[in-house]
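Field log, afternoon session.

UNIT: design team B
ACTIVITY: writing a sequence onto a fixed backbone
BACKBONE:
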């Protein structure tokens, strides 16, 4: 395919996605973090379908994806200075802000909560879809509830093969894990879900604008739906923090000696690791392996590893 043909293919996929969203359907959409399962925020039917086909509990609210800060402001009741500063710095990008919702936002999206999670995605296709549709879309990650998020179009097609969900192919996701989720109440900030935008970076940006905000880390489950077990691959994941040999770990966990184990090497660069993490977990699950083994070492020290650790921690069936 030459460049022009590629562009035409993308255009027709984007147009098709917009048509389907207008017709109360759900669509797989690439974002820079992970692929989302999108529904127009004004289609109760499509919003219902998102929960139904993901098998997602109705207590877990959806993130709304908007084209810019002006559109974001129109969907919330308050826009504190903290939100202003952080959105100016980090949007478009992998940061979700949770703020008191405006009345036009359906309770289905927020799971009955008075607040709304909102972000401006960076992926050009996601942005184009919002513009062409003429309104924002709500989208959780496009995986079955509790399972690994998709970072390629084929992951979404595989996950929803029975439902034949249409997916816009935007290539591999650049970030690879889900956005940082921040709840903002005046100058009180809570990190509901860690991501590749770290607490340290958020603190620095606010400080540079003269805001000394209090930032709290949430305990395990503050974000509804961000459960203790989540992101689970189809085969059990063993998470080991230490230097026991794999043989010793197998012994301790009574894992049959003939089991096939996929050893996932995290490497030294957290951004590279995040980008390929979920694809590796899926590939290992889809091949002949029985277990995935991940070793956490001193190399994974920098704060950019925190979100990766959070996901592995929740994906693990065994920890030692
Ligand atoms: O990177 C991402 O955030 C991806 C892409 C598609 O944008 N989306 C994503 O959505 O990860 P989901 O639904 O898989 O995770 C959204 C998280 C959930 O843990 C949810 O509880 C939290 O954000 N969340 C959304 N709205 C919220 C709200 N109003 N209050 C508290 N937490 C909220
Ligand atoms: Mg998810």
């Amino acid at each position: 395919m030459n460049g022009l043909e590629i562009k035409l293919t993308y255009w027709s996929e984007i147009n098709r996605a917009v048509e389907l969203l207008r017709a109360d359907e759900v669509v797989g959409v690439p974002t820079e973090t992970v692929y989302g399962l999108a529904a127009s925020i004004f289609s109760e039917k499509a919003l219902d379908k998102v929960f139904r086909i993901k098998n997602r509990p109705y207590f877990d609210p959806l993130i709304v994806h908007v084209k810019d800060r002006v559109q974001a402001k129109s969907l919330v009741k308050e826009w504190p200075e903290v939100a202003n500063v952080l959105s100016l710095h980090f949007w478009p990008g992998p940061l979700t802000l949770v703020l008191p919702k405006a009345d036009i936002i359906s309770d289905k999206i927020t799971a009955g909560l008075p607040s709304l999670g909102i972000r401006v995605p960076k992926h050009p296709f996601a942005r184009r879809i919002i513009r062409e549709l003429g309104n924002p879309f709500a989208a959780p990650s496009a995986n079955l509830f509790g399972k690994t998020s998709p970072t390629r179009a084929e992951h979404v097609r595989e996950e929803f093969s029975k439902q034949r969900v249409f997916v816009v192919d935007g290539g591999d996701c650049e970030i690879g894990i889900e956005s940082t989720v921040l709840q903002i109440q005046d100058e009180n900030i809570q990190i509901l879900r860690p991501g590749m935008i770290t607490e340290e970076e958020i603190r620095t940006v606010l400080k540079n604008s003269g805001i000394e905000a209090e930032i709290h880390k949430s305990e395990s489950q503050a974000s509804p739906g961000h459960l203790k077990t989540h992101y689970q691959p189809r085969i059990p994941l063993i998470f080991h923090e230490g230097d026991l040999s794999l043989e010793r770990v197998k012994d301790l966990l009574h894992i049959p000696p003939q089991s096939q184990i996929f050893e996932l090497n995290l490497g030294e660069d957290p951004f590279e690791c995040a980008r390929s993490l979920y694809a590796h977990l899926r590939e290992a699950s889809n091949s002949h392996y029985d277990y995935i083994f991940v070793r956490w070492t001193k190399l994974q020290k920098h704060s950019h590893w925190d979100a990766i650790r959070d996901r592995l921690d929740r994906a693990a069936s065994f920890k030692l």
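LOG NOTE: Residues 140-141, 149 surround magnesium ion (ligand 2) (CB under 6 Å).
NEXT ACTIVITY: expression trials, pending approval
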